[in-house]
């Protein structure tokens, strides 16, 4: 049976005793609660203040022998480093952002990847520590070791490559459907639409001039999805299956970064891999699905979920940036986020998407208003402050 997690104590890593444990033994509940609150703050501080020295100590404590070479890799959500070992090989260590995934949820990510590897599907699976676990912890931060992989990121696909990827994606979903992931997010309207919307509203990110229209658009597309997704099977999927998480190496294509894997419908991975809306995008998806069906069933009716899922991506992505706004890397990466023009564009995109869906639909849920809520007419003064 695979082992997935082991906790490193402060004593192992830094040679200090744990005051919280002493408080528990002494029966000092108040002190223990205070230490717990302090630990949560310290956890975030440790994550944001990771240094090469701390990274190297954690990797050494995990049983590896790094040379001291430690290069940070670009990653907004987690902290990722390339390390060279004394045998001249390289590993990649990922420190998971605290508070995002539980140890059980990360273990399910690792389990999915190891299941895929056992099925001879090309993925980047975690490397076990010497104790057999694939997840360790330092200062409350979970971290894992990965092989360094190389390859070429695609910019476009020819028809043969699309067919290969269709068969590969079907095999991934076959494995996904054979297991469960009770601690991972389910891709449903509460998780990817309504909860993100509530966060944006409660935290004051939505400006007053857009808030009513934005909420109405999100609620309408969520209502559509709830109706149209009835009976559509869900299982473990990649969840973030865009071309940036795909490489072509010497041994062919392989998928990276299952950090966002969810339990959801197969069509979500399909549209994210080939997101085009034009005639060529539709043709490519049809080609991929044709190849997909060589290994797994795919009902063409599931394709009507593509545009609602695209809308959810808009909302979930905006809420993700908003949740990370206190991380200095996010304002630097998304300088236009939160501006009036940003929210006006987001709102219009959602409204246009839902109107396109409603125009061609013959089975609208009862009570769904086909007309958008109109806001006040915008004038030039809304766009040019100096008029």
Supply the key terms:
387 residues; alpha+beta; Phosphorylase Kinase, domain 1; Transferase(Phosphotransferase), domain 1; 2 domains; 14 helices; 10 strands; 47% helix; 13% strand; globular; disordered N terminus
CATH first level of the largest domain: Mainly Alpha
CATH level-3 fold name of the largest domain = Transferase(Phosphotransferase), domain 1
CATH architecture of the largest domain: Orthogonal Bundle
SSE class: alpha+beta
How many domains, in number, for the residues? 2
What is the straight-line distance between the termini? Answer: 70 Å
Low-pLDDT ranges: 1-41, 373-387
Cα-atom Rg, whole angstroms? 23 Å
Give the strand content: 5-15%
Shape: globular
Mean pLDDT, nearest integer?
85
CATH homolog superfamily of the largest domain: Transferase(Phosphotransferase) domain 1
- State the order of secondary-structure elements, H for helix, E for strand: EHHHHEEEHEEHHHEEEEHHHHHH
Q: How would a crystallographer describe the biggest sheet?
A: 6 strands, mixed
- Range of helix content: 40-55%
Q: Spatial order of the strands in the main sheet?
A: 1-5-6-4-3-2
């Amino acid at each position: 049976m695979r082992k997935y997690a082991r906790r490193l104590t402060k004593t192992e890593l830094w040679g200090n005793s744990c005051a919280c444990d002493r408080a528990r033994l002494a029966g000092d509940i108040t002190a223990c609660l205070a230490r717990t609150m302090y630990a949560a703050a310290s956890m975030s501080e440790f994550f944001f203040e990771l240094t090469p020295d701390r990274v190297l100590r954690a990797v050494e404590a995990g049983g590896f022998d790094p040379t001291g070479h430690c290069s940070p890799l670009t990653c907004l959500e987690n902290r990722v480093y390339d390390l060279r070992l004394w045998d001249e090989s390289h590993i990649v260590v990922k420190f998971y952002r605290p508070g995002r995934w539980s140890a059980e949820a990360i273990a399910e990510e690792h389990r999915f990847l190891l299941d895929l590897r056992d099925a001879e599907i090309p993925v980047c699976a975690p490397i076990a520590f010497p104790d057999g676990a694939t997840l360790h912890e330092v200062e409350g931060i979970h971290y894992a070791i990965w092989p360094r992989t190389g390859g070429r990121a695609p910019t476009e696909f020819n028809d043969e490559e699309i067919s290969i990827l269709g068969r590969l994606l079907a095999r991934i979903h076959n494995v996904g459907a054979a297991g469960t992931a009770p601690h991972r997010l389910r891709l449903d309207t509460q998780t990817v639409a309504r909860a993100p919307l509530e966060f944006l509203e409660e935290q004051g990110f939505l400006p007053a001039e857009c808030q009513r229209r934005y909420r109405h658009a999100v609620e309408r597309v969520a209502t559509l999805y709830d109706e149209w997704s009835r009976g559509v099977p869900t299982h473990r999927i990649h969840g973030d299956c865009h071309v940036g998480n795909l490489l072509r190496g010497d041994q062919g294509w392989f998928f990276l970064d299952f950090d966002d894997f969810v339990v959801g419908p197969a069509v979500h991975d399909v549209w994210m891999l080939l997101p085009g809306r034009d005639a060529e995008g539709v043709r490519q998806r049809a080609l991929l699905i044709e190849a997909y069906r060589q290994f797994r069933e795919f009902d063409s009716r599931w394709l009507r979920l593509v545009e609602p899922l695209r809308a959810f991506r808009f909302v979930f992505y905006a809420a993700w940036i908003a949740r990370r706004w206190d991380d200095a890397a996010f304002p630097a990466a998304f300088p236009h986020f939160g501006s009036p023009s940003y929210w006006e564009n987001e709102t219009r995109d959602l409204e246009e998407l839902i109107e396109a869906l409603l125009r061609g639909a013959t089975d609208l849920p009862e009570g769904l208003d086909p007309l958008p809520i109109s806001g006040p007419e915008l004038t030039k003064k809304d766009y040019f402050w100096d008029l």
